[in-house]
Amino acid sequence: MKKNSAETYVHWSRHKEQAAGYWQLKFLLLLFKIMPVFILRVLAFPVGFFYFIFSKRGRKESKRYLQKVAPYIKEKKLAKKCRSRFGPLRHIISFSLALVEKLMSWGGKFPFENIEFNEDDINELRRELEKGKGVFLIFSHLGNTEMLRGLLTAGQTGVSRKIPVTAIMDIKVTAHFSRMLRELNPQSSMDIIGADDINPRTAILLQEKLNSGGMVVIAGDRTSSNTDGKNHRFPFFGKQAPFSSGVFYMAALMNAPVFFVFGLRKKTLSLKAQYSMHVHKSSLSFDCSRKERFERSELLAHSFAFFLENYCKEKPFQWYNFFDFWQEGAVK
Predict the structure, then answer these.
(1) Which among 174, 198, 283 is positioned nearest to 246, based on CA atoms?
(2) pLDDT per residue over 87-141, tens digit each?
(3) Whose CA is closest to 327, among 247, 223, 249, 174?
(4) Residue-wise pLDDT tens digits, 194-206
(5) pLDDT cut 70: percent of the chain above it
(6) How much is the mean pLDDT over the chain?
(7) Are 137 and 261 in contact (CB under 8 A)?
(8) CA–CA separation, 179 and 234 (whole Å)
(9) Rounded to an integer, what distance in angstroms lies between the CA atom of residue 143 and that of residue 146?
(10) What is the domain partition of the chain in residue ranges?
């Protein structure tokens, strides 16, 4: 049976922004400015329920993902929640809470003492930054990495200097939210470069920013529509999934240490926001030939996918990818 156009795979960047248009986000920003944060957290629950009811695609893609992750979760109670018909509702409400906390982070209203760093490579990251070196950070849409960027903006990283941040993102999809963040914090030192604008000159610019001690951040769980057929594909919850070859090759090109960063909410639906930050430094060296660099960039992508899968098993309702990540097409 032939699938209709609504059932075929559509690249994530061609979907409209899930959180609606600029004026809706502007209204959210107004509420953020005039209402206590606790009230906004409470409102995140009915708002999440609203999108659960009216966003058919969000429900279906959430269900697709949760059905894949459930068999890999050892904790039976958590796996049962993923299989539940209300699993997508929990997933969407979690996203709604994360959106409020992004605003808190950028608006300087998040109690950063509620962010716990683990005994991993965070100290190595601090040492690199303290020495004035630039770093290349690869994050994901798991949890809330805005917490780290918020810490940078607030000067609470434990590093004695101000760190300029350059974020590479798809501006077409995130334009409204990015514009709102700039209104919320016009003093932010973060520059935004469109993912579709990447070219050899951009690579030179990024290297200059890194050489001057800046931080470049990019998502590792998004692919470009321009290179959709040239991605790395790795097993991810039992199915082959695409990971951008461009993102990881760019990381390999830069003369800077590469770190993976994950910011996970300790309790997914708690009204008290507490986060656990996980930082992992890649052990790969990219001082090699062009051919070897590409091969090692594939290893870098595979390593990222490994960390992402393991943290998704731990916090399955905090991976906010409401699109056909596996490029399978229709889902019931």
Answers:
(1) 198
(2) 999 999 999 999 888 888 777 777 878 888 888 998 898 889 888 899 999 999 9
(3) 223
(4) 766 677 788 888 9
(5) 79
(6) 82
(7) yes
(8) 34
(9) 9
(10) 12-318
Neighbouring-strand partners of residue 167:
192, 217
**Which DSSP state fits 195?**
G
pLDDT score, position 9: 54
> Residue 136 is inside which H or E element, if any?
strand 135-139
Asked whether the predicted pLDDT for residue 80 surpasses 60, the reply is yes
Residue 327 in this model has a pLDDT that exceeds 70: yes
Q: Which CATH number fits domain 12-318: 2.70.98, 1.25.40, 2.30.30, 3.40.1130?
A: 3.40.1130
Encoded tokens for 156: 């609470």
Integer CA distances (angstroms), 303 to 36, 142, 223, 260, 296, in order: 41, 16, 16, 9, 10
- The long-range contacts involving 324-327, CB below 8 angstroms and separated by at least 24 positions, are 324/9, 324/10, 324/12, 324/61, 324/64, 325/12, 325/61, 325/65, 325/221, 325/236, 325/241, 326/64, 326/68, 326/236, 326/239, 326/240, 326/241, 327/9, 327/241, 327/242
Say if residues 332 and 17 touch (Cβ distance below 8 Å). Answer: no
The pTM score is 0.87
**Each residue's pLDDT tens digit, 98-112:** 988 888 877 777 787
**Distance (Å, rounded) from C-alpha 137 to C-alpha 167?**
10
More confident residue, 42 or 161: 42
The rounded percent of the chain whose pLDDT value lies above 90 is: 40
C-alpha 317/C-alpha 78 separation (Å) is: 10
Alpha helices in 107-162 (DSSP H): 122-130, 146-154
